[in-house]
Amino acid sequence: MSKRDFRVFLASPGDVGPEREEVKAIVNRIATERQIRDTLDLRLVAWDLPGMEVAMVATDTPQSAIEKGLPNPSECQAAVVILWSRIGTPLPEKYKKPDGSRYLSGTEYEYCDAIAGHEENGQPAVWLYWNRNPPSITLGDPEYAEKEAQLNQVSAFFEDFSNADGSQSGGYDTFNDTTHFTTQFEQRLRDHLTQFIQEVENEEPSTSPKAPPDTALGYTNEALKLDRTEQWISLLKLLNTDRHATLLLYGTTLQSMELFVARLWAYVQSEADKEHDLIEVPAKRDMEFPCSAAEWVNRVRFALDDERSASEALVTRLRNAPVLLIIGRNPFHLSELTDRQLKALKEFLSRSLPEIFSEVEQAPVVRHPLRVLIALSYDDTQAAIEAFDQSMQTAFSDTVVRHRKLKEFQSVDWEHIESYLDGLKPAPSNAVYEKLKQMFAKLDQENMSFRQLTDWLNTTLH
Question: Could you tell me which residues come within 8 angstroms of residue 232 by beta carbon, excluding any fewer than 6 positions away?
Answer without folding.
Answer: 260, 263, 264, 267
